[in-house]
Amino acid sequence: MKLQQSLMIILGLVLFAGCKKFLSEEPKKQASIKTVEQLEALIDNATAFAYVTSQTATFSTDDTEITKERYQGNVSSYGNDILQYYVGSVDGVVNQASDQLWTGEYKKIFTANLILANIDEVTGDEVSRQRVKADAYFIRAYSYWVLANYYCAPYSAANMGALGLPLKKTVDYTESLKRATLQETYDLIMSDIAEAQKVSVDDVESRKAWRVSKKAIAAFLSRVHLFRGEYDQSLVQAEIALTTTSAKLVDYNTLQAGNTVTYTNPPDTLKYVEQNDWLPAKFLYWSEFYYTRFAYTANQWFMPSASLLGLYDEVNDLRYKSFMIKNGGRRFGVITPEAFRYTVFNDGKYIPEGPGVAEVLLNKAEVLARKGNASGAMDAVNILRQKRMSTYIPLTATDKDDAIKKVLEERRREMPFAMRWYDIRRFSVNDYAADDITVVRDFFDVTLTGVNLNAPKTYTLSTKRLLVPINGVEMDNSRGQIVQNPY
Q: How far apart are alpha carbons 270 and 257 in whole angstroms?
């Protein structure tokens, strides 16, 4: 019990200068780490790593919509904090009390660094030691990739000299917090991935998909290369990942009914599928994962926009029928006008974000479409659609442009909210103008203190605001080392 308490204290530490007094005691706490099994136990604490908490992913894309009519009738249902993200405010995000995405991912990085600092000193067999080391490198690479794709400029040749991230590679509190360049940030990410590739485990462990494997790395690299515009490399990695015999698509026709929820005044009964009832003890083992990661919202309400809803075949698409809950706003007292709610796991708190079979198929399809292989792109997409439709209707494409359009629509249907922010950013810097997305909000004037219902206002998310502002508390705690993005 004392060891467990000690490890939990370590996990609870944060990185920056404001916590110097805690980090200065780190050598004493690390003295309790003696065996590789203890470090492995940190990694097997899956809930410490599995959740990516992002207000931006939940509220800042065109997948989300809060209409003026709905807001006027339900002001108390929408906090001013989320509205700052909804309208793309800079000051409103800088002045939030905290940023759970930033602190959450850096805590994972800290734990990875803790493991790497101790792995060569502890006792234990060499196979376990090398596996744990690979896990730590991959945890760090994944978290830095997430952070770079929120707080830094999108990856492009023109942006390599732009501000990257503070690169923490040790548990030393005196290590610089000055932001590296974007090039240096990606160099570390790719270096860490290369170290993780030394893992001896080839395929996903179905009961521990949060542990790294060669197939998990290939799945992630198919994403990384796609986002970097390295299409040939993305395709190679997608093909490697798709040879898995462990990760498998779930046929949504097999999903069972979940618990229903009944409301009165006015009466209504909302029907959910079984996944809505799943707790972490079950959804952490989602069989489609190569690597376990979920987008999380404490708000419990992913609010689908009219444009997102309009992409689905309402009769045959089981993603719509199972997860787009009509009148789901009743869960939060929103009755008029009727509001949909997107809910997958655990009463709408979690949706898949980690590399899964569906994403890898879509990565493959997108690469093929962009390379002009329209029929190959549709073949990859239709493997997915066979598992998602009550009556299977294959997609076809007439040419390259049509194939790209249909693949990207399928991507949005399959991975709303979790991947949309990432996609909007990369579309903004690639060489294909037809996929560019402009996020426009028809809302009211939102200030730091409230909303003026008498002042309608249109907001357009600018290219500069595709970089999430760094929280003011983090900048203050760094004592001037961390500088803000230019707006």
A: 11
| Coil/strand/helix, residue 459 | strand
Residue 459: strand pairing partners: 441
Which residues are 289's β-sheet partners?
A: 356
How far is the C-alpha of 282 from the C-alpha of 279, rounded, in Å? 6
Give the C-alpha separation, 81 to 74, whole Å: 16
DSSP string covering 219-251:
HHHHHHHHHTT-HHHHHHHHHHHTT-SS-----
Measured from the Cβ of residue 157, the count of other Cβ atoms closer than 10 Å reads 10
- pTM value is 0.94
Pair 465, 85: CB distance under 8 Å: no
Distance CA 132, CA 424 (A): 34
| Three-state helix/strand/coil letters over 333-369 | CCCCCCCCEECCECCCCEEECCCEHHHHHHHHHHHHH
pLDDT digits (tens, 9 = 90+) for 293-343: 999 999 999 999 999 999 999 999 999 999 999 999 999 999 999 999 999
What confidence tens digit (pLDDT) does each residue in 30-82 have? 668 999 999 999 999 999 999 999 999 999 999 999 999 999 999 999 999 99
State the amino acid at position 401 in one-letter form. D
Tokens standing for 113? 């660094």
**Bridge-based pairing state of the strands 341-342 and 440-446:** unpaired
Q: Please name which of 288, 259, 253 lies closest in space to residue 273, comparing C-alpha atoms.
A: 259
